[in-house]
Design a protein that fits this description.
The chain has 101 residues and is mainly α. The chain has a domain of 48 residues. Helices cover 69% and strands 6% of the residues. The protein has 5 helices and 2 strands, in the order ααββααα. Strands 1-2 form a two-stranded antiparallel ribbon. A hairpin with a 2-residue loop joins strand 1 and strand 2. It is elongated. The relative contact order is 0.05.
C-alpha cells in the first residue's frame, strides 16, 4: 500500500494504477464513486448492517406469524403435524441440498 501511495506522479503512478479523478486521487482499490478508502469501508459496513437488519425483520415477522397461527389454530396444527412423513421430508431435504449447488 505504501508503494501505491508513494507513486502518485509520473510514470510510477501510471504503473501503480494511481490516477486523478476530478479533485481527488483514485487508488486501484477504490471504486470510482468513493473519495477515500475509509468512505468506501464505511459504506460497505453500513450496507451489511442494513442487510442484516432487514433479514432480522423479515424472518422475525415470519417466525412471529408462524407462532401466532400455531397458537390460534392449535387444534388444526396437531393432526397436521401427525401426518408429516420424516423419511419423505429427509429425502426432499437431501434433494434440495444436492441440487442447490
Amino acid at each position: 500500500m505504501a508503494n501505491t501511495i508513494a507513486a502518485t506522479h509520473g510514470e510510477d503512478a501510471h504503473l501503480a494504477g494511481v490516477h486523478e479523478h476530478g479533485e481527488h486521487l483514485v487508488l486501484p482499490q477504490h471504486r470510482h464513486h468513493f473519495e477515500t478508502e475509509e468512505q468506501q469501508r464505511e459504506a460497505g459496513s453500513f450496507g451489511m448492517w442494513l442487510f442484516l437488519l432487514t433479514e432480522i425483520m423479515f424472518f422475525g415477522g415470519m417466525f412471529f406469524a408462524y407462532l401466532l397461527y400455531r397458537n390460534w389454530y392449535y387444534d388444526a396444527f396437531v393432526p397436521a403435524s401427525n401426518q408429516l412423513s420424516i423419511p419423505l421430508g429427509t429425502l426432499s431435504w437431501l434433494d434440495a441440498t444436492a441440487n442447490a449447488g
